[in-house]
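Quick start: read one record
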Amino acid sequence: MTHLTVTPDTAGITDVPGFEAAGVPCDLRQKNDPKRLDLALLFSLRPCTAAGTFTKNTVKAAPVLLCEQHLAEGGTFHGIVANSGNANACTGADGLRDAHATAQRAAASLNLKPSSFFVCSTGRIGQPLPMDRLVKGLERAVSEKGRTPAHGRKAADAILTSDTRAKTVTVTFTYDGKKHVVAGLAKGAGMIQPNMATMLAFLATDFSVPRSFLQKTLSEAVAGTFNCISVDGDMSTNDTVLILANGYSGVSVGDKSPRELRVLFAEAVWKACDALADKIVSDGEKITKVVEVRVAGAASSEDAEKVARAIGNSLLVKSSWNGEDPNWGRLAAAAGCAGAKLNEAKLDIFYNDTPAMTAGKPHADLKPKWKEIVRARRFTVTLNLHLGKAGYRLLATDLSEGYVNYNKSE
C-alpha cells in the first residue's frame, strides 16, 4: 500500500516541479523597513488548472473579488501575486483597479494574459495600496524568481503579517513508479475563524487535474481543515485558498482515474491543508495553548459543530485555558448555550482521556489530573452528548493578556 510522506517546514511551492517563486521587500507598510519581505510571486512555467475557496464575509477585499472573477472566467493560470502589509480591503473602486493593475503588470512582465494571475493581499484594512512601491517590487520579483529552496522560503516569508514564523509543507507519494508532490505555504495568526480566516494558503501539484475535480478536492479538504480552526472568532475580508495544478508529471487525476490514485491525491491535498491549518492555530497571536475540541454523539453534524464552536470561541473558556484552570463547568455552560440538542444527564466531558463529568455527574477526585493536563501547551477536551452518531473537531486557542495588548491598537 502506498504511503504519503508529510514534511513540514520545507521550501514549499518550489518543491513542486515546474514552479518558481520570489519574495522581495517593497516597504508596503510604509514604515521605513526596506528589508522586510512583503511581496511574493509564485509562477508556473506551464499553464495550470486552478481551484479556490474564499471568505464568506460579505465585505470582500478587492483581491478576493478579482480571484473569484478570474476563476469564474475559466481558462488557464500561471501564478499568484501576494502582498502583506496592506489588505486592499474596504478600498472601493480604487482598490479593485489596483488589484487588476497588479495582475496586468505581472502578466505584461511575463508575456501572459492578466487573467492568468491571481492577486492576494493581507494586512491592514482600509488603506490604499502604495502602487508605485508594489510595481517596483513586482518588477524585482519577476527578475529574481527561481526554483531553489531559498526562493520558496522567501515567498513564504513575504506573505506574513503578525505571524512569528513561516508556514510551509510538502506532501509526497509514489504511484505507478512516479513520485508526485503537493506542496504549499500559508499565513495567518489573528482574525482566525472560519469561513475561513485572515489567512492565505497557496498549494500546488505536479498532477494534471480537471478544474471540477480539483475544486471538489480542495473544497472538501478546506471544509475539514482550514474551516475547523479558530483563534479569536473573527472572520476576515481576505481569506483565500488557491491550488494550481501544472501537469508537469504527465499524469492526470480526475473522476475517471483509478480509485487508488483519486484517494491518494485527495489525501495529499487534505494532509497539506491540515498541516498548514495546524501551523496557523499554533502560531495564533500571543497564544499559550492549542486545544483540540472534540464533540461526539451529537444528534446531527450541525449540532456537533455548534457545540464545538461555542466552546472554542467562548471568552470564559479561552480565559480559563490561559489560566491553566480546568473549569469544566464553563465547557458545559458553553455547550448548553450553543443551540444544539443536549441532555445534561447524558453529557460526558473529558480532558484528554480523564473524565471530568460522565452522565452529568462530576469526578471531583480527578481534579489534580485535570490540572496536570491543562498545563500542557496542547491538550484535548472531548464532549460526548450521547444523542446520536455525529461529531466535529475544532482546533482552538486560549485568550491571553498578550492578545488583548497586541490588538488594542494597530
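The chain has a mean pLDDT of 94.
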